């Protein structure tokens, strides 16, 4: 759609930066191709070290502090009101600092493919904070369940995701108890299907796969026992587990007393390596990075590698990157608002600590509020299926208006770093700028509008 | 309105140009080109009736919203842990309303609020929110693979409106609204959005977007709507009171504003109905939001409320039994909420299937006794006079509308 006969195809390096990273930067060379992208995953996670984000320990500390303060308030203890206020303020400040850290990583890392993969997998395993005290859950989840596993295997990532306290909270697994378990009988509590269902539908097999309501129910029973506490994090409670074996997709798991966590892991491993999971994940990768309607042969190529390597993730990414479809010159996808903000900052290239130094008010003003307006409320998709992929879902009149507004006004935030639009055109888009944009950028009435035009352009918003 | 715009303003230029593009190159519709906007066609299509479809995303628990307290099995399934021990206002001898919707009781008594119980789409068994919503919005049966569905059922209805113009239909809010999107033109906007561009930037941006149909169409619409809202605001001065706070009330108020002008069909969604845990508190919150939304629509519409039908639909219901965590899991049969001065309210429509184990769907969910699409179809027929065959073939392919429930006054 974006290419016309008059336009030359962008180079592979340009596409590598835009399609598989957070875009071009004047301070960093673009990755030259598949090998350079995969190399980013081999070394240490440098951006994580440079820009800290709340981890699971911090999440649990704040969760604990909030719960303690709220309990004291319910019991009307003296000073409790003040304590809740303090804990809430601490929590909110920590969360906004985390937002700055996440944005700085996306905008300034020299491992853009790693950052994009982190976003992809966090979205695949969507976790949303449903209540105030769990606000740091999505950061903690990203930090400890996803990032360490970006270059391991999918079965390993699945275990980490399914047992992370933030996931257990979000999909209610921390409350799901076998109705006939010791704890269930004593407390008259029981099963919650939420995680069991979404695990099959969204995290692994995909909704079109041949599983049934009975499989969902059986898996929900098998998953009983998964829980956490604020001291240790994830814990397995054998006395919560539904007694007896469960049959999931025709295979029996568990049945011993006391119940064993390893039975749950065995089931997760089998589901992770099911051919339906291979296809589902391959399709999602192709859709997220390349096309809203990817060529079935492209998807099959990725799925095949996934299965052949038992879910080895770098091998799976290699299959994605080595296929010619990954490098189609037509840029079909649109940057999601998070991607758009990160790419804008990256191309503007202010000092890397500019984002980290924003105060809380400016963090809301320049990051959180614009994301909401563009349709991507920070860390808050509507459901566990995460964000939409379809370009049309993002480029609506109302959301595009807010992209344009932000593009034209981000100058107050970056005033001192505004480049000449003709130069910026090259740093932001390299050889991917259209002749129409080149002409228009030169005609803008001032620097601010010229740069705004580039950021608002379809060229910049597509990848 | 267009005739309020200053003559030869850039906005007006764009408005007509946009309509031209929409009608010809961009949409490529097979029907006759959409007519150019003129003051004459403004007030016309499609008649004077208004239809609002609200999608309640996440599966609203119909059994808790319209409570069948007269069913001997109800109390067995729904204990105080879920209901809070408060029955809620009586609708009939058999049904009571969730207490969080009490503010709507005056509408019920005025016959401007009604329900249909034990309804569902044709979707069964897998109980996926996302498939469920896709099917609800596509309005198809299970015989059509969802990726092939390009138009929502409201859009297919629009395609049958003869003198459709660009403002006839509106998708409101920031959620994608598949139910109303498709080949027929639909405006799309969110409350509080305002595009701010200098004339020069606007001209340059148009050139930049010219090659990309998606960006081109979205930006042209944004420019036109912003200009229109701006002109309405100045024309109306202080008529609007302070902006309402809650999201739903904002959606309701904005939608009412459009419907008071030339818009006739609108749709938006309210999310957060997935009550796996702590249903008592979560559902109450969502229902208060829905109540505020409907009341904002009513007050914003003024006299036009009398010509309005609101249908609030959800992808499926929830389990009859409470789950182990003071909530309910995904189910099947649910409830349809209807409001507006155009409906024959004060009644709970539908055949009640009963809640005994044998009567539940798969021994767990409320058994659907009617297709929720049939109610939507009868509403369209009652309001706009659409041909039944058209509704059963084009709007809702292969639907059997059954007998007329006579929901439109």
From TrEMBL, chain A:
Instruction: Report what the protein is called.
Output: Uncharacterized protein
Origin species: Thioclava dalianensis
Q: Which InterPro entries match?
A: DUF1800
Pfam families for the chain: DUF1800
* Superkingdom: Bacteria
């Amino acid at each position: 759609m974006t290419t016309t006969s008059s336009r030359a195809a962008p180079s592979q390096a340009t596409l590598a930066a835009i399609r598989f990273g957070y875009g071009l930067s004047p301070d960093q060379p673009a990755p030259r191709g598949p090998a350079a992208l995969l190399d980013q995953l081999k070394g240490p996670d440098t951006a994580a070290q440079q820009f800290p984000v709340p981890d699971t320990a911090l999440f649990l500390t704040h969760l604990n502090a909030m719960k303690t303060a709220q309990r004291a308030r319910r019991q009307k203890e003296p000073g409790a009101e003040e304590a809740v206020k303090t804990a809430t303020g601490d929590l909110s400040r920590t969360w906004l600092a985390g937002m700055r850290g996440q944005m700085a990583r996306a905008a300034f890392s020299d491992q853009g493919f790693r950052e994009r993969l982190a976003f992809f997998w966090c979205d695949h395993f969507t976790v949303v904070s449903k209540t105030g005290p769990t606000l740091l859950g999505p950061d903690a989840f990203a930090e400890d369940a996803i990032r360490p596993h970006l270059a391991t295997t999918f079965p390993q990532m699945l275990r980490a995701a399914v047992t992370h306290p933030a996931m257990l909270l979000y999909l209610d697994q921390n409350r799901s108890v076998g109705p006939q378990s010791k704890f269930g009988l004593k407390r008259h509590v029981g099963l919650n299907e939420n995680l069991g269902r979404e695990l099959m539908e969204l995290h692994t097999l995909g909704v079109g796969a041949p599983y049934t309501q009975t499989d969902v129910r059986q898996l929900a029973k098998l998953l009983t026992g998964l829980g956490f506490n604020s001291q240790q994090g994830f814990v397995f409670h054998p006395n919560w587990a539904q007694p007896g074996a469960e049959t999931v997709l025709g295979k029996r798991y568990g049945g011993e007393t006391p119940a064993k966590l390893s039975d749950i892991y065995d089931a997760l491993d089998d589901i992770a390596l099911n051919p339906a999971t291979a296809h589902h994940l391959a399709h999602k990768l192709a859709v997220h990075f390349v096309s809203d309607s990817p060529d079935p042969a492209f998807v099959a190529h990725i799925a095949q590698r996934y299965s052949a390597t038992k879910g080895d993730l770098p091998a799976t990414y290699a299959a994605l990157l080595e296929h010619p479809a990954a490098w189609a010159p037509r840029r079909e996808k649109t940057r999601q608002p998070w991607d758009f903000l990160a790419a804008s900052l990256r191309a503007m290239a202010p000092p890397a600590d500019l984002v980290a130094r924003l105060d809380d008010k400016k963090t809301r003003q320049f990051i959180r509020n614009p994301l909401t307006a563009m349709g991507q409320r920070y860390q808050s998709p509507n459901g566990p299926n995460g964000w939409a992929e379809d370009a049309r879902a993002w480029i609506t009149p109302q959301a595009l208006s807010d992209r344009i507004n932000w593009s034209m006004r981000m100058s107050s935030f970056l005033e001192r770093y505004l480049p000449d639009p003709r130069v910026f055109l090259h740093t932001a888009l390299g050889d991917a700028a259209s002749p129409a944009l080149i002409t228009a950028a030169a005609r803008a009435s001032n620097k601010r509008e010229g740069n705004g035009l580039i950021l608002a352009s379809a060229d910049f918003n597509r990848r | 309105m267009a005739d309020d715009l200053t003559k030869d303003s850039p906005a007006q230029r764009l408005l007509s140009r946009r309509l031209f593009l929409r009608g010809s190159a961009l949409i490529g519709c097979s029907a006759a080109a959409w007519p150019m906007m003129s003051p004459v066609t403004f007030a016309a299509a499609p008649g004077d009736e208004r239809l609002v479809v609200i999608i309640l995303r996440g599966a609203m628990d119909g059994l808790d919203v319209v409570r069948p307290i007269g069913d001997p099995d109800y109390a067995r399934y729904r204990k105080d842990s879920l209901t809070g021990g408060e029955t809620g206002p009586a609708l009939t001898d058999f049904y009571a309303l969730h207490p969080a919707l009490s503010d709507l009781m005056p509408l019920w008594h005025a016959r401007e609020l009604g329900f249909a119980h034990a309804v569902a789409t044709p979707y069964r068994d897998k109980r996926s929110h996302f498939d469920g919503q896709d099917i609800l919005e596509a309005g198809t049966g299970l015989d059509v693979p969802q990726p092939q569905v390009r138009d929502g059922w409201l859009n297919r209805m629009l395609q049958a409106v003869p003198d459709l113009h660009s403002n006839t239909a509106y998708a409101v809010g920031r959620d994608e609204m598949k139910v109303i999107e498709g080949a027929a033109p639909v405006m799309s906007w969110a409350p509080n959005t305002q595009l701010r561009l200098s004339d020069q930037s606007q001209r340059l941006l148009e050139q930049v977007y010219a090659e990309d149909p998606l960006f081109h169409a979205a930006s042209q619409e944004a420019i036109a709507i912003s200009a229109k809202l701006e002109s309405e605001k100045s024309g109306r001065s202080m008529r609007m009171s302070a902006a309402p706070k809650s999201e739903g009330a904002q959606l309701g108020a904005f939608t009412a504003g459009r419907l008071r002008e030339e818009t006739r069909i609108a749709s938006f969604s309210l999310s957060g109905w997935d009550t796996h845990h702590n249903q008592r508190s979560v559902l109450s919150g969502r229902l208060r939001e829905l109540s505020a939304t409907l009341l904002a629509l009513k007050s914003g519409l003024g006299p036009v409320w009398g010509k309005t039908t609101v249908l609030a639909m959800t992808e499926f219901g929830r389990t009859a039994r409470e789950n182990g965590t003071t909530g309910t899991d995904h189910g099947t049969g649910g409830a349809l909420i209807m409001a507006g001065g155009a409906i024959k309210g004060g009644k709970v429509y539908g055949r009640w299937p009963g809640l005994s184990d044998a009567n539940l769907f798969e021994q767990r969910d409320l058994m659907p006794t009617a297709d929720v699409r049939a109610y939507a179809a009868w509403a369209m027929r009652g309001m706009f006079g659409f041909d039944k065959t058209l509704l059963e073939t084009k709007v809702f392919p292969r639907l059997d509308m059954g007998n007329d429930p006579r929901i439109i006054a």
